[in-house]
Amino acid sequence: MSALQIKKGSTKHSAYNLRSTFSDVEETHTIAVLVENEPGVLARVIGLFSGRGYNIDSLTVAEVDHQGRLSRITIVTTGTPQVIEQIKAQLGRIVPVHEVHDLTAEGGSVERELALLKVSGTNDKRVEALRLADIFRAQVVDSTLESFVFQITGTPEKVDAFADLMRPLGLSEIARTGVAALARGL
């Protein structure tokens, strides 16, 4: 059957009606990329995203195998399923890339982020900030008469919730590491 013979609304899939196989809904995916630890690799990965107009929501990079000179790049990005598939395919074509894993698509993963939050305030606001920090299991890592610096680890949603509660109490600065993630199980 040629493309001209396919009836409107047909359930058959061909190169002419790929839109029916993908959703237009944007999804957030965590992608882990194992790369050679050499100059310019991170720039090439970032260039892939910026050159095509894709956004990076979170980016972490660290050497994970000193002897093998390998680094792991963890990227959180948002896009339609088509865009995510295109990103993974293009990442896999970059020469110093060894592995590309879509932790979101491959099943469960553990994601954590570390954040430092400076909260300035006095009297009741200080007491409330300490109370909330205790509930969220955030630790005080610095304290002055005018401010606290809290350290919190957890999911990005937990960090967001803590920051949202600290804003009216005097949140003046925040630094976040970005997401570190590993697949669950073996």
UniProtKB/TrEMBL annotation:
State which Enzyme Commission number(s) the record gives.
2.2.1.6
- Entry GO CC: cytosol
Catalysed reaction(s)? Answer: 2 pyruvate + H(+) = (2S)-2-acetolactate + CO2
Q: Which Pfam families match?
A: ACT_AHAS_ss, ALS_ss_C
This protein's pathway: Amino-acid biosynthesis; L-valine biosynthesis; L-valine from pyruvate: step 1/4; Amino-acid biosynthesis; L-isoleucine biosynthesis; L-isoleucine from 2-oxobutanoate: step 1/4
For biological process, the GO terms are:
isoleucine biosynthetic process; L-valine biosynthetic process
Domain ACT span(s) in chain numbering? 30-105
Q: Which UniProt keywords apply?
A: Amino-acid biosynthesis, Branched-chain amino acid biosynthesis, Transferase
Q: Which InterPro entries match?
A: Acetalactate_synth_ssu, Acetolactate_synth/TF_NikR_C, Acetolactate_synth_ssu_C, ACT-like_dom_sf, ACT_dom, AHAS_ACT, AHAS_small-like_ACT
PROSITE patterns linked to this entry: ACT
> What CDD domains does the annotation carry?
ACT_AHAS (cd04878)
Similarity annotation: Belongs to the acetolactate synthase small subunit family.
**What is the protein name stated in its UniProt record?**
Acetolactate synthase small subunit
Organism encoding this protein: Puniceibacterium antarcticum
